[in-house]
UniProtKB/TrEMBL annotation, chain A:
Gene3D superfamilies, alphabetized: 2.30.30.100
GO biological process: mRNA splicing, via spliceosome
Recorded name of the encoding gene: LOC112278281
InterPro entries hit by this protein: LSM_dom_sf, Sm, Sm_dom_euk/arc, U6_snRNA_Lsm2
Function: Component of LSM protein complexes, which are involved in RNA processing.
Family: Belongs to the snRNP Sm proteins family.
Predominant place of localization: nucleus
Annotated PANTHER family: SNRNP CORE PROTEIN FAMILY MEMBER, U6 SNRNA-ASSOCIATED SM-LIKE PROTEIN LSM2
One Pfam family per UniProt: LSM
SUPFAM superfamilies linked: Sm-like ribonucleoproteins (SSF50182)
A Gene Ontology molecular function term of the record: RNA binding
Name the UniProt record assigns to this protein: Sm-like protein LSM2
Domain annotation Sm: ranges: 2-76
UniProtKB/TrEMBL annotation, chain B:
Quaternary context: Component of the heptameric LSM1-LSM7 complex that forms a seven-membered ring structure with a donut shape.
Record keyword Metal-binding present: no
Protein name: U6 snRNA-associated Sm-like protein LSm1
Domain Sm: 9-84
Keywords assigned: Cytoplasm, mRNA processing, Ribonucleoprotein, RNA-binding
Pfam short name (any one): LSM
Transport listed as a keyword: no
Compartments it resides in: Cytoplasm; Cytoplasm, P-body
Record organism: Physcomitrium patens (Spreading-leaved earth moss)
Function: Component of the cytoplasmic LSM1-LSM7 complex which is involved in mRNA degradation by promoting decapping and leading to accurate 5'-3' mRNA decay. LSM1A and LSM1B are essential for the formation of the cytoplasmic LSM1-LSM7 complex which regulates developmental gene expression by the decapping of specific development-related transcripts. Required for P-body formation during heat stress.
Biological process (GO), any one: cold acclimation
GO cellular component terms attached to this protein's record: Lsm1-7-Pat1 complex; P-body; ribonucleoprotein complex
Annotated InterPro entries: Lsm1, LSM_dom_sf, PTHR15588, Sm, Sm_dom_euk/arc
Molecular function via GO: mRNA binding
Lineage summary: Eukaryota, Viridiplantae, Streptophyta, Embryophyta, Bryophyta
Length: 93, 127
């Protein structure tokens, strides 16, 4: 639940999602769910010449199981709050 | 994907995409385009009037599939196609299924050859 809550804080921020098939998509985080499925808006493929079929896709749903990385803005998170939440989760779990 | 709770939060749901023309990318690299008629919590989807779009370089081909059910575990991404925009760059050329299969084979052979050449070079250990 920690990462679900963490991603909820990032809704509205610009992120880059790198998938296990090496596709990297940048966009604004619209929503996330318990499976860490991600919905992005205003999507743009990072290397768009390699993926012409994505040209007219502006919003997309990404299945959580295929995400490799989520790149965040450097000021996207308060590290202290994240540390505290992680400690609490570790204690409780 | 639960409907209960989280009222003030935009939950991730495919309900907004119902009856819309979508691009579904699968784990095996296939690109399926169709109209979303149904989905569930595993991202299993039902697409109506589905077609598989194959692209090789500048060439592309659409293979009609009809009514398609895709098991959620194979889904990578579901993208909403903006009808106001071009689906493909204008330089792309549409070809027949036979031609696209030939192009696919040529691309596969080229990649295999590249792999073989690389293995041979590595064996020589020139560096």
């Amino acid at each position: 639940m920690l990462f679900f809550s963490y991603f909820k804080e990032l809704v509205g921020k610009e992120v880059i999602v790198e998938l296990k098939n090496d596709l990297a998509i940048s966009g604004i985080l619209h929503s996330v769910d318990q499976y860490l499925n991600i919905k992005l808006e205003n999507t743009r493929v990072v290397d768009d010449t390699k993926y012409p079929h994505m040209l007219s896709v502006k919003n997309c749903f990404i299945r959580g199981s295929v995400v490799r990385y989520v790149q965040l803005p450097p000021d996207g998170v308060d590290v202290d709050i994240l540390h505290d939440a992680t400690r609490r989760e570790a204690r409780g779990g | 994907m639960s409907w209960a709770g989280l009222d003030n939060f935009p939950a991730t749901s495919l309900a907004d995409n119902l009856d819309k023309k979508l691009l579904v990318i699968l784990r095996d690299g296939k690109k399926i385009i169709g109209i979303l008629r149904s989905f569930d919590q595993f991202a299993n989807v039902v697409l109506e009037g589905a077609l598989e779009r194959i692209t090789v370089g500048e060439l592309y081909c659409d293979l009609p599939l009809g009514l398609y059910i895709i098991r959620g575990e194979n889904v990578v991404l579901i993208g909403e196609l903006d009808l106001g925009r071009e689906e493909l760059p204008s330089f792309m050329v549409r070809v027949t299924p036979t031609e696209i299969k030939q192009a696919q084979k040529a691309e596969k052979d080229a990649t295999e050859l590249k792999g073989t050449m690389r293995k041979r070079m590595e064996f020589l250990d020139l560096e």
